[in-house]
Design brief:
Layout lengths: L8 H6 L4 E3 L1 H13 L4 H19 L8 E6 L3 H15 L3 E6 L6 H8 L3 E4 L2 H10 L2 E5 L11 H25 L19 E5 L22 E5 L1 E3 L8 H4 L1 E5 L8 H4 L3 E3 L2 H7 L14 E5 L6 H13 L4 E7 H7 L7 E5 L12 H10 L5 E4 L9 H11 L7 E3 L2 H6 L14 E2 L3 H7 L10 H7 L1 H12 L2 E4 L5 E3 L5 E3 L12 H14 L4 H20 L8 H21 L1
Length: 570
């Protein structure tokens, strides 16, 4: 899934970043807007028009007289659907509104006057309409509803699901072949019909927790939400029902205190494009900074190489890998752009014998760099712990901006009050298991420490970023990036292709590459994580099960070029 753009550049500029809100925060924003002169009726009119606009974009091109079924609840969400019905009917669509409850108001009358059919109670007719529709708009329940779904709304959703499933089954029978080739690969499935557009949330979804009623919630192809993304949109399992997430403005005053107070955001392409480092014509390699990657071991030889390649690909001017000699010897020929700092090891088994001389050499080199990445592929070498502790304690005040990843995090977790040893605004990049170790979580209520992290990702990342005085990049579906002073961002990507060894090393190298070019730690983390997610999505477009970390690196230039071009076109 992904977050769509604001509907116009002017609106996007007035709302610098897409906000991420709770239901209570959104209700407070709407109430403040109403008090400031933007009435609920105006907000509904704008939401309904945006729904109609997206509905037309979703219709199949061959539908010359499109058949649209709108499921209408009794609240404001249903009002949005009725406004959309009027617009769609006026444009010539064959529009039917099925009301969950009988309602006669100006919105119903306007839709009827425009040519929309208004009906309710007859479930047989509902199934027929759903089975023959090109598009179904789900405007039954809004953000205030909680699962499970009950009563007549549940019956409506169950009947619509049966109609959709019946149509799909019949389509498979009609298009099936009486025999099949043993040599020909199967073709991609065509887009299913009817398509489903959810207004604000798929009915049956909790807009805060991301819980759903799996028995009746419709899987939307797209969800259109208004003014701000809700936490549940970017939380599993609800995210599996949202489809492609679009955001439309309600044109609220940007000066509203309730809106300005929201410090959680969703990362989007425009804000990342605006942050990308400039490339002046008189640049030299020093202009774009120097990265030192301290990592690698005989067991994880490739990790440091992946991180170094990624740092180069996002624009760093020079990248050095400091690693034991077996790692350098294995990687040097394949990475001609990288410079090397071979660290002495004391015998054949280099992973276990990182020497005191290696620690001294690394310490000497660290202050000469603009960004330092520690931990990728480091393993559990005998003196690796000593190396990290020495750098953190003896180089205090001389350390460049710092990223700690992988085994560097696991070693931190073994230290007492480790957060007092790292510089403020150090960037930590844990996956859920590493986060659990850093936070000293214990199994509870039958859930593992990692499961406890996953159950409360946003709150935990924000809390620990403040406690540890660092930037936390909590990886996984919808990566959370939290700063110690309050800002928090969530990525709009849930990409299984990135659940592959080495992709974390790529992300860590990208963050270090952006740091070396002068981005502030929070901005570097946001930018790298977004470009990383977008590159993973591109890599997965053709071969979702076959993506390697190198494939993500290979797609970085395409993503960065697209972002740079979008910046130039504004």
């Amino acid at each position: 899934m992904r977050v769509g753009c604001w509907s116009s550049r002017a609106e996007r500029e007035n709302n610098a970043v897409p906000k991420l809100v709770t239901v209570a925060e959104m209700q407070a924003i709407e109430a403040a807007a109403d008090a400031a002169g933007v009435s609920y009726a105006q907000m509904m009119a704008r939401a309904g028009r945006a729904t109609a606009d997206l509905a037309y974009q979703m219709l199949p091109p061959e539908a010359k007289q499109p058949r649209i079924l709108i499921l209408v609840g009794h609240g404001n969400n249903g009002g949005d659907g009725l406004v959309a019905a009027r617009w769609l009917a006026e444009q010539g669509a064959n529009t039917a509104c099925y009301l969950a409850r009988g309602r006669e108001d100006s919105l119903v009358e306007a839709a009827r006057a425009a040519g929309a059919t208004i009906l309710s109670e007859n479930l047989d007719t509902l199934r027929q309409l759903a089975g023959g529709a090109d598009l179904i708009i789900d405007a039954l329940l809004g953000t205030g509803a909680k699962p499970p779904v009950r009563g007549v709304v549940r019956e409506i959703l169950l009947n619509v699901r049966r109609a959709i499933e019946g149509r799909a089954a019949q389509s498979n029978l009609d298009e099936g072949e009486s025999s099949h080739s043993l040599h020909k690969l199967p073709q991609p499935l065509p887009p299913r019909l009817p398509r489903v557009l959810a207004v604000d949330v798929p009915s049956g979804m909790d807009a805060d927790s991301g819980a759903v009623d799996p028995d009746c919630t419709l899987h939307a192809d797209s969800t259109l939400t208004f003014e701000a993304v809700k936490h549940g949109h970017l939380t599993l399992p609800a995210a599996e029902y949202v489809g492609e997430l679009h955001l439309a403005p309600l044109k609220l005053p940007s000066t509203l205190p309730e809106l300005a107070a929201v410090r959680h955001q969703v990362v989007d392409a425009e804000q990342v494009a605006a942050r990308l480092p400039q490339r002046p014509l008189d640049a030299n390699k020093g202009t774009f900074g120097k990265v030192l990657v301290l990592g690698g071991s005989e067991r994880y030889i490739g990790a440091a190489g992946l991180a170094a390649s990624a740092a180069y690909r996002v624009g760093a001017g020079l990248v050095t890998v400091a690693a034991i000699k077996p790692v350098v010897n294995a990687l040097a020929a394949a990475l001609p752009e990288v410079t090397w700092l071979p660290l002495p090891n004391g015998g054949e088994d280099g992973e276990k014998t990182l020497t005191d001389a290696a620690i001294s050499l690394a310490m000497t080199e660290v202050p000469d760099y603009d960004a330092l990445l520690i931990g990728v592929g480091m393993g559990r070498a005998l003196n690796a712990f000593t190396l990290i502790e020495t750098i953190l304690t003896q180089a205090e005040g001389q350390l460049p901006p710092l990223v700690i990843d992988a085994d560097g995090l696991n070693m931190l977790a073994t230290m007492d009050e480790w957060w007092a040893k790292i510089p403020p605004n150090t960037i930590l990049t844990p996956h859920p298991g590493e986060m659990a170790r850093l936070a000293k979580l214990r199994a509870e209520g039958g859930r593992t420490p990692a499961q406890l992290v996953q159950a409360d990702r946003v709150r935990l990342a924000a809390e620990k970023a403040a406690q540890w005085r660092c930037i936390v990049v909590l990886k996984g579906a919808f990566t959370v990036i939290a700063a110690p002073d309050g800002p928090l961002a969530v990525l709009p990507f849930a990409e299984p292709a990135l659940a592959r060894a080495g992709t974390g090393d790529v992300l860590a190298g990208m963050i270090a590459g952006f740091l070396a070019q002068g981005l502030a730690p929070f901005e570097a983390a946001i930018s790298a994580a977004y470009v990383h997610g977008a590159s993973g999505r591109l890599a997965a477009a053709q071969t979702p099960s076959s993506v390697l970390a190198q494939d993500v690196i290979a797609h970085l230039p395409q993503v960065i070029t697209s972002l740079e071009n979008s910046r130039l076109s504004r």
